[in-house]
Automatic annotation (TrEMBL):
Listed name of the protein: Iron complex transport system substrate-binding protein
Places the protein is found: Cell membrane
Gene Ontology cellular component terms for the protein in this record: outer membrane-bounded periplasmic space; plasma membrane
BP terms from Gene Ontology: iron coordination entity transport
Amino acid sequence: MTKQHGKKIIQWVGGFLLLLIISACSTSNANSNVADEQKEEGEKTVLYTTITGEQVEIPADPKRVVYIGQTIGDFLAMDIPVVGNNLPKEPASYYEGKLEGIVDIGNPADLETILTLKPDLIINGYYKADPNLNEELAKIATTIPFNPALPYTERVKEMGNILGKQEEVAQVIAKFETRFTEMFEKLQLAEGETATVFYQLGKTLYVMGDRSLGAIIYGENGFAVPPAVQKNIIDVEGVSFVTVSEEVLSQFAGDHLFVIVQEDDESESEADRLLQSPIWGTLPAVQKGNVYVIANEWNTDELLALEQLYKKLPEWMHKQ
C-alpha cells in the first residue's frame, strides 16, 4: 500500500466519522426540539382572573378536573373531564348513567381523596363557606373559586372562561334560549301573566326568586314576576328566597303556582296539609286549577336538567 493511498483511506474514514457525528447531533437536536415542544404544549397555561380578583395561571386544556359544588350537571352536559366531585347522595333522574367514573370526594371535600386523583385543576364552589379550604386545595393543584349560585347563563359563561370553551358555551346558551322561547310561544301566555315558585322544606314554606327553576320561568318571553317577589327577593341583593306564612300567601301568589316539595315524609306531609288548607283554597290560581306540584330534583337550572325541563314544564301545565 502506498503512502498516498493510505492517506486517502484515512481521509475517507475521517470524513465518514464526521458525517456520523453531524447526523447524530442533528438527530439529537431534533429529538430535543420535539421533546421541548411536547413539554411546552403539555404545560401550556393561560392567565385567568378569578371572581375574587386574583390573577392565576391555569392549564389551558385541563384533563383532570375536580369540581367541588352542586352544579355537576353543567360539567356533564359540556363533556368536561371531571374526575372528582362531592356527588349527590340521591342523584336526580337526569343524572342516570352520567356519573360513572367520577369519584365521590365527600362533602364538601376530602383532601386525601382529591390528592389520589392527581387533578390538574380544582374548581371550588364552596370557597365562601370555608375560606381555608382554598389554601389547602391549592397545595394539591391550581385551585380557583367559583360561584355556582349564579343564574345558568352567567355560571356557564364563567365556566367557558375558565376552560377555554367560550364558543361552545355561547352555542349552548343560544340553544336553550331558543328552546325555551319556542316553549313559551306554544304556551301562549297572556301579557303580564305571573307565576310563583313555592318550596316546601320540612315545615317551612319558601318563595323562590329568579334562581334555579325561577331562572327558567322568569326568563325572556316567560312568566312575569309578581310584584311581591320582585320587591322582597329579586330586588334585594344576596337574597334568593324568603320564608312565608300562610297569612301572606295571597301577596306572593301569581296566576300560576309551582310547588316544589322536598322528598321526605315531613315535607310531603306538610305540603299535603298546605294544599288542603282553607287559605290555600282562596287563591285565584288554585281556583282555576293552575297549581303544579313537582319533585325537588327539578328545582334547578343545571344544563343537564334543562335538556329535559323545556319538555317537562308544558307537561306539568297539561299543555303538552
